[in-house]
Protein backbone atom coordinates (compact mmCIF):
# COMPACT_ATOMS: atom_id res chain seq x y z
CA UNK A 1 0.00 0.00 0.00
CA UNK A 2 1.42 3.36 -0.98
CA UNK A 3 2.10 5.98 1.69
CA UNK A 4 0.43 8.60 -0.53
CA UNK A 5 -3.34 8.60 -0.86
CA UNK A 6 -3.24 11.51 -3.30
CA UNK A 7 -0.31 12.39 -5.55
CA UNK A 8 -0.81 15.36 -7.86
CA UNK A 9 1.95 16.37 -10.29
CA UNK A 10 1.83 19.46 -12.52
CA UNK A 11 -1.96 19.37 -12.75
CA UNK A 12 -3.71 21.88 -14.98
CA UNK A 13 -7.26 22.43 -16.15
CA UNK A 14 -8.31 24.85 -18.88
CA UNK A 15 -11.94 25.68 -19.61
CA UNK A 16 -13.07 26.88 -23.00
CA UNK A 17 -16.11 29.10 -23.43
CA UNK A 18 -18.34 28.75 -26.43
CA UNK A 19 -17.90 31.28 -29.15
CA UNK A 20 -20.38 32.74 -31.58
CA UNK A 21 -20.23 33.44 -35.32
CA UNK A 22 -17.36 35.84 -35.83
CA UNK A 23 -16.32 35.66 -32.17
CA UNK A 24 -14.18 32.70 -31.08
CA UNK A 25 -14.55 31.25 -27.60
CA UNK A 26 -12.11 32.13 -24.86
CA UNK A 27 -9.94 30.00 -22.61
CA UNK A 28 -9.29 30.44 -18.93
CA UNK A 29 -7.19 28.42 -16.54
CA UNK A 30 -8.93 27.01 -13.45
CA UNK A 31 -5.79 25.15 -12.25
CA UNK A 32 -2.16 25.82 -13.09
CA UNK A 33 0.76 23.48 -12.29
CA UNK A 34 -0.73 22.13 -9.06
CA UNK A 35 1.53 19.81 -7.07
CA UNK A 36 0.17 18.14 -3.92
CA UNK A 37 0.90 15.01 -1.94
CA UNK A 38 -1.57 13.82 0.71
CA UNK A 39 -0.27 11.08 2.99
CA UNK A 40 -2.32 8.06 3.98
CA UNK A 41 -4.06 8.75 7.30
CA UNK A 42 -3.90 12.52 6.86
CA UNK A 43 -6.70 15.05 7.21
CA UNK A 44 -5.64 17.50 4.53
CA UNK A 45 -7.22 20.88 3.84
CA UNK A 46 -7.55 23.03 0.72
CA UNK A 47 -8.15 26.59 1.88
CA UNK A 48 -9.19 29.29 -0.54
CA UNK A 49 -12.00 31.64 -1.59
CA UNK A 50 -14.84 30.78 -3.94
CA UNK A 51 -13.46 30.50 -7.46
CA UNK A 52 -9.96 29.55 -6.29
CA UNK A 53 -10.03 26.18 -8.06
CA UNK A 54 -10.82 23.94 -5.08
CA UNK A 55 -13.92 22.32 -6.55
CA UNK A 56 -12.27 21.81 -9.95
CA UNK A 57 -9.41 19.99 -8.24
CA UNK A 58 -11.83 17.82 -6.25
CA UNK A 59 -13.78 16.94 -9.41
CA UNK A 60 -10.57 15.80 -11.09
CA UNK A 61 -9.50 13.73 -8.07
CA UNK A 62 -12.92 12.06 -7.92
CA UNK A 63 -12.84 11.23 -11.68
CA UNK A 64 -15.70 13.61 -12.52
CA UNK A 65 -13.49 15.85 -14.67
CA UNK A 66 -10.42 15.20 -16.80
CA UNK A 67 -7.26 17.24 -16.34
CA UNK A 68 -5.90 19.25 -19.25
CA UNK A 69 -2.31 18.57 -18.21
CA UNK A 70 -0.34 16.79 -15.53
CA UNK A 71 -1.35 13.70 -13.58
CA UNK A 72 -3.12 12.68 -10.39
CA UNK A 73 -3.09 9.39 -8.50
CA UNK A 74 -5.74 8.57 -5.89
CA UNK A 75 -5.32 5.45 -3.75
CA UNK A 76 -2.44 4.57 -6.10
CA UNK A 77 -4.47 4.71 -9.33
CA UNK A 78 -4.49 7.26 -12.14
CA UNK A 79 -7.74 9.24 -12.10
CA UNK A 80 -7.79 9.60 -15.90
CA UNK A 81 -6.73 6.13 -17.02
CA UNK A 82 -7.89 3.96 -14.10
CA UNK A 83 -11.09 5.66 -12.97
CA UNK A 84 -12.88 2.33 -12.42
CA UNK A 85 -10.28 1.36 -9.85
CA UNK A 86 -10.42 4.76 -8.13
CA UNK A 87 -14.21 5.02 -7.70
CA UNK A 88 -14.83 2.04 -5.39
CA UNK A 89 -12.16 3.37 -3.02
CA UNK A 90 -13.47 6.94 -2.62
CA UNK A 91 -16.53 8.92 -1.63
CA UNK A 92 -17.45 12.58 -1.93
CA UNK A 93 -19.79 15.05 -0.23
CA UNK A 94 -20.38 18.60 -1.44
CA UNK A 95 -22.00 21.37 0.56
CA UNK A 96 -25.44 22.34 -0.75
CA UNK A 97 -25.84 19.30 -3.03
CA UNK A 98 -29.20 17.61 -3.67
CA UNK A 99 -30.21 15.17 -0.95
CA UNK A 100 -31.56 11.85 -2.19
CA UNK A 101 -35.19 11.15 -3.01
CA UNK A 102 -37.69 13.32 -1.16
CA UNK A 103 -40.35 10.58 -0.86
CA UNK A 104 -37.92 8.19 0.84
CA UNK A 105 -37.10 8.39 4.52
CA UNK A 106 -33.63 9.15 5.81
CA UNK A 107 -33.03 5.45 6.50
CA UNK A 108 -34.33 4.40 3.08
CA UNK A 109 -32.17 6.93 1.21
CA UNK A 110 -29.02 5.90 3.05
CA UNK A 111 -29.77 2.17 2.82
CA UNK A 112 -30.35 2.47 -0.94
CA UNK A 113 -26.96 4.18 -1.37
CA UNK A 114 -25.26 1.48 0.70
CA UNK A 115 -26.57 -1.16 -1.69
CA UNK A 116 -24.80 0.48 -4.63
CA UNK A 117 -21.56 -0.43 -2.83
CA UNK A 118 -22.67 -3.95 -1.87
CA UNK A 119 -22.76 -3.39 1.89
CA UNK A 120 -24.78 -6.19 3.57
CA UNK A 121 -28.18 -4.88 4.64
CA UNK A 122 -27.72 -5.58 8.35
CA UNK A 123 -24.31 -3.92 8.43
CA UNK A 124 -25.66 -0.93 6.47
CA UNK A 125 -28.48 -0.39 8.96
CA UNK A 126 -26.07 -0.66 11.88
CA UNK A 127 -23.80 1.99 10.37
CA UNK A 128 -26.73 4.26 9.50
CA UNK A 129 -28.12 4.20 13.03
CA UNK A 130 -24.71 4.71 14.66
CA UNK A 131 -23.76 7.66 12.43
CA UNK A 132 -27.14 9.37 12.76
CA UNK A 133 -26.83 9.10 16.54
CA UNK A 134 -23.46 10.85 16.50
CA UNK A 135 -24.97 13.67 14.42
CA UNK A 136 -28.02 13.92 16.72
CA UNK A 137 -30.42 12.73 14.01
CA UNK A 138 -31.66 9.44 15.46
CA UNK A 139 -35.15 10.90 15.84
CA UNK A 140 -35.25 11.60 12.08
CA UNK A 141 -34.53 8.05 10.95
CA UNK A 142 -38.02 7.56 9.53
CA UNK A 143 -38.60 11.15 8.39
CA UNK A 144 -38.98 11.73 4.65
CA UNK A 145 -35.97 13.66 3.39
CA UNK A 146 -38.26 16.22 1.73
CA UNK A 147 -39.40 17.23 5.22
CA UNK A 148 -35.88 17.90 6.54
CA UNK A 149 -34.40 21.35 7.02
CA UNK A 150 -31.38 22.37 4.93
CA UNK A 151 -29.04 21.61 7.82
CA UNK A 152 -30.49 18.15 8.44
CA UNK A 153 -30.38 17.29 4.73
CA UNK A 154 -26.70 18.19 4.71
CA UNK A 155 -26.11 16.01 7.77
CA UNK A 156 -27.77 13.15 5.89
CA UNK A 157 -25.38 13.80 3.00
CA UNK A 158 -22.46 13.66 5.41
CA UNK A 159 -23.59 10.23 6.64
CA UNK A 160 -23.99 9.08 3.03
CA UNK A 161 -20.37 10.02 2.29
CA UNK A 162 -18.97 8.17 5.32
CA UNK A 163 -21.30 5.18 5.06
CA UNK A 164 -19.15 3.15 2.66
CA UNK A 165 -16.02 3.61 4.82
CA UNK A 166 -13.99 4.88 1.84
CA UNK A 167 -10.23 4.68 1.66
CA UNK A 168 -10.15 8.36 0.62
CA UNK A 169 -13.00 10.73 1.42
CA UNK A 170 -13.44 14.11 -0.26
CA UNK A 171 -15.50 16.79 1.50
CA UNK A 172 -16.09 19.89 -0.61
CA UNK A 173 -17.29 22.74 1.65
CA UNK A 174 -19.27 20.27 3.81
CA UNK A 175 -20.49 22.89 6.31
CA UNK A 176 -21.49 25.48 3.71
CA UNK A 177 -24.76 27.11 4.82
CA UNK A 178 -24.98 25.21 8.11
CA UNK A 179 -25.63 26.97 11.40
CA UNK A 180 -23.03 27.01 14.17
CA UNK A 181 -24.45 23.98 16.00
CA UNK A 182 -24.72 21.81 12.88
CA UNK A 183 -21.20 22.79 11.78
CA UNK A 184 -19.86 21.82 15.20
CA UNK A 185 -21.57 18.41 14.97
CA UNK A 186 -20.08 17.78 11.52
CA UNK A 187 -16.56 18.73 12.63
CA UNK A 188 -16.81 16.46 15.69
CA UNK A 189 -18.04 13.63 13.46
CA UNK A 190 -15.08 14.11 11.09
CA UNK A 191 -12.56 14.01 13.94
CA UNK A 192 -14.05 10.82 15.43
CA UNK A 193 -14.12 9.07 12.05
CA UNK A 194 -10.45 9.82 11.44
CA UNK A 195 -9.46 8.60 14.92
CA UNK A 196 -11.13 5.22 14.41
CA UNK A 197 -8.76 4.05 11.65
CA UNK A 198 -5.23 5.41 11.01
CA UNK A 199 -5.42 4.37 7.35
CA UNK A 200 -8.34 6.66 6.51
CA UNK A 201 -7.57 9.77 4.48
CA UNK A 202 -9.76 12.84 4.20
CA UNK A 203 -9.34 15.81 1.90
CA UNK A 204 -11.40 18.83 2.94
CA UNK A 205 -11.99 22.02 0.97
CA UNK A 206 -13.16 25.09 2.86
CA UNK A 207 -13.05 28.85 2.91
CA UNK A 208 -13.59 28.92 6.70
CA UNK A 209 -10.31 29.69 8.47
CA UNK A 210 -11.42 28.28 11.83
CA UNK A 211 -12.53 25.01 10.24
CA UNK A 212 -9.19 24.54 8.48
CA UNK A 213 -7.19 25.44 11.59
CA UNK A 214 -9.25 23.21 13.88
CA UNK A 215 -9.38 20.08 11.72
CA UNK A 216 -6.45 19.81 9.33
CA UNK A 217 -3.06 18.18 9.79
CA UNK A 218 -1.76 20.17 6.82
CA UNK A 219 -3.25 22.91 4.67
CA UNK A 220 -2.64 24.04 1.11
CA UNK A 221 -3.64 27.64 0.46
CA UNK A 222 -4.97 27.96 -3.07
CA UNK A 223 -5.93 31.06 -5.05
CA UNK A 224 -6.59 31.64 -8.75
CA UNK A 225 -5.81 28.01 -9.51
CA UNK A 226 -2.37 27.99 -7.91
CA UNK A 227 -1.13 26.50 -4.65
CA UNK A 228 0.62 29.32 -2.79
CA UNK A 229 1.78 27.45 0.30
CA UNK A 230 1.41 24.03 1.92
CA UNK A 231 2.29 23.13 5.52
CA UNK A 232 0.84 22.49 8.96
CA UNK A 233 -1.31 25.31 10.39
CA UNK A 234 1.36 25.96 13.00
CA UNK A 235 4.18 26.24 10.48
CA UNK A 236 2.14 28.46 8.19
CA UNK A 237 1.53 30.87 11.06
CA UNK A 238 5.22 30.81 11.98
CA UNK A 239 5.88 32.60 8.68
CA UNK A 240 4.71 35.78 10.41
CA UNK A 241 6.22 35.30 13.86
CA UNK A 242 8.93 37.85 13.19
CA UNK A 243 6.32 40.55 12.65
CA UNK A 244 4.05 42.40 15.08
CA UNK A 245 0.30 42.07 14.52
CA UNK A 246 -2.19 44.49 16.01
CA UNK A 247 -5.97 44.76 15.79
CA UNK A 248 -7.33 48.30 16.10
CA UNK A 249 -10.93 49.37 16.52
CA UNK A 250 -11.33 52.95 15.35
CA UNK A 251 -13.87 55.47 14.15
CA UNK A 252 -14.88 55.05 10.48
CA UNK A 253 -11.91 55.04 8.09
CA UNK A 254 -12.35 56.40 4.53
CA UNK A 255 -10.85 54.34 1.70
CA UNK A 256 -8.37 57.14 0.95
CA UNK A 257 -7.09 56.94 4.52
CA UNK A 258 -6.46 53.21 4.18
CA UNK A 259 -4.42 53.90 1.05
CA UNK A 260 -2.33 56.50 2.88
CA UNK A 261 -1.72 54.07 5.75
CA UNK A 262 -0.42 51.44 3.35
CA UNK A 263 2.37 53.77 2.29
CA UNK A 264 3.73 54.28 5.81
CA UNK A 265 7.22 52.87 6.48
CA UNK A 266 7.26 49.81 8.72
CA UNK A 267 3.65 48.86 7.93
CA UNK A 268 3.75 45.60 5.99
CA UNK A 269 0.03 44.87 5.53
CA UNK A 270 -3.25 46.49 6.49
CA UNK A 271 -6.76 45.07 6.11
CA UNK A 272 -9.89 47.08 6.71
CA UNK A 273 -13.33 45.91 7.92
CA UNK A 274 -16.47 47.97 8.56
CA UNK A 275 -19.07 46.94 11.15
CA UNK A 276 -21.63 48.72 13.33
CA UNK A 277 -20.47 52.20 12.42
CA UNK A 278 -16.86 51.45 13.31
CA UNK A 279 -13.77 50.28 11.48
CA UNK A 280 -11.42 47.44 12.33
CA UNK A 281 -7.86 47.62 11.11
CA UNK A 282 -5.56 44.60 11.18
CA UNK A 283 -1.97 45.79 10.96
CA UNK A 284 1.09 43.66 10.26
CA UNK A 285 4.17 45.67 11.24
CA UNK A 286 7.76 44.88 10.41
CA UNK A 287 8.62 45.98 13.96
CA UNK A 288 6.48 46.93 16.94
CA UNK A 289 8.14 50.35 17.10
CA UNK A 290 6.38 51.33 13.85
CA UNK A 291 3.04 51.41 15.68
CA UNK A 292 3.59 54.90 17.14
CA UNK A 293 3.96 56.51 13.70
CA UNK A 294 0.85 54.69 12.45
CA UNK A 295 -1.21 55.98 15.39
CA UNK A 296 0.14 59.50 14.92
CA UNK A 297 -0.78 59.40 11.23
CA UNK A 298 -4.33 58.27 12.03
CA UNK A 299 -4.73 61.06 14.60
CA UNK A 300 -3.68 63.57 11.95
CA UNK A 301 -6.42 62.20 9.68
CA UNK A 302 -9.04 62.64 12.41
CA UNK A 303 -9.37 58.89 13.06
CA UNK A 304 -9.85 58.12 16.76
CA UNK A 305 -8.58 54.94 18.40
CA UNK A 306 -11.24 53.02 20.39
CA UNK A 307 -9.27 49.88 21.28
CA UNK A 308 -5.97 48.19 20.49
CA UNK A 309 -4.98 44.54 20.84
CA UNK A 310 -1.75 42.75 20.03
CA UNK A 311 -2.34 39.16 18.93
CA UNK A 312 -0.68 36.04 17.59
CA UNK A 313 -0.70 35.29 13.84
CA UNK A 314 -3.75 33.49 12.42
CA UNK A 315 -4.38 31.66 9.15
CA UNK A 316 -6.23 34.77 7.98
CA UNK A 317 -2.98 36.75 8.44
CA UNK A 318 -1.10 34.12 6.43
CA UNK A 319 -3.72 34.34 3.68
CA UNK A 320 -3.43 38.14 3.55
CA UNK A 321 0.36 37.84 3.40
CA UNK A 322 0.18 35.44 0.45
CA UNK A 323 -2.75 36.90 -1.49
CA UNK A 324 -2.66 40.59 -0.55
CA UNK A 325 -6.25 40.79 0.73
CA UNK A 326 -8.46 39.04 3.26
CA UNK A 327 -10.75 36.10 2.55
CA UNK A 328 -13.71 38.22 3.67
CA UNK A 329 -12.90 40.96 1.17
CA UNK A 330 -12.46 38.42 -1.64
CA UNK A 331 -15.80 36.78 -0.86
CA UNK A 332 -17.44 40.22 -0.76
CA UNK A 333 -16.01 41.10 -4.18
CA UNK A 334 -17.14 37.79 -5.70
CA UNK A 335 -20.69 38.25 -4.40
CA UNK A 336 -20.84 41.81 -5.70
CA UNK A 337 -21.12 43.22 -2.23
CA UNK A 338 -24.24 41.18 -1.43
Task: Walk me through what this model shows.
The chain contains twelve helices and 14 strands. The protein is of the alpha/beta class and 338 residues long. It has a six-stranded mixed sheet with strand order 6-7-8-3-9-10, sandwiched between helices. Strands 2-1-4-5 form a four-stranded antiparallel sheet. A hairpin with a 2-residue loop joins β12 and β13 (278-285). α3 runs parallel beside α5. The chain is globular, with a radius of gyration of 23 Å.
Briefly summarize what is shown.
The protein has 338 residues and is of the alpha/beta class.
The number of strands is 14
Poorly predicted regions are none
The overall average pLDDT, rounded, is 90
Beta-strand fraction estimate = 25-35%
Percent helix: 25-40%
Rg, Cα atoms, Å: 23 Å
Helical run tally: 12
Strand order of the largest sheet: 6-7-8-3-9-10
Largest sheet: 6 strands, mixed
Structural class: alpha/beta
The shape is globular
Helix and strand run: EEEHEEHEHHHEHEHEEHEHEEHEHH
Assembly context of the chains: single chain
First-residue to last-residue Cα separation: 48 Å
Tags for this model:
single chain, 338 residues, alpha/beta, 14 strands
Q: SSE layout and pairings?
A:
Elements: E1 4-16, E2 27-39, E3 43-47, H1 54-61, E4 69-74, E5 77-78, H2 83-86, E6 90-94, H3 106-116, H4 121-134, H5 150-163, E7 168-172, H6 180-196, E8 201-206, H7 209-215, E9 218-223, E10 226-231, H8 233-238, E11 244-250, H9 255-262, E12 267-275, E13 278-285, H10 291-300, E14 305-311, H11 315-323, H12 327-334
Helix pairs in contact: 3-4, 3-5, 4-5
Amino acid sequence: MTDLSVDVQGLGRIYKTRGSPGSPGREFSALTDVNLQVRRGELFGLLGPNGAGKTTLIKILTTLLSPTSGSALVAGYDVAGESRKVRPRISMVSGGEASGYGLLTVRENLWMFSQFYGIPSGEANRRIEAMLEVLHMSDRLDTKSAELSTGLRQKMNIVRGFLTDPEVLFLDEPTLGLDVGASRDVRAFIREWMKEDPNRTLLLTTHYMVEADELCDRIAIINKGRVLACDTPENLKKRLQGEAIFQLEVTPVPAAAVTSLESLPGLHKVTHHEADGRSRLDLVLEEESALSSVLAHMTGLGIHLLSLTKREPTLEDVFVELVGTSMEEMEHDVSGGA
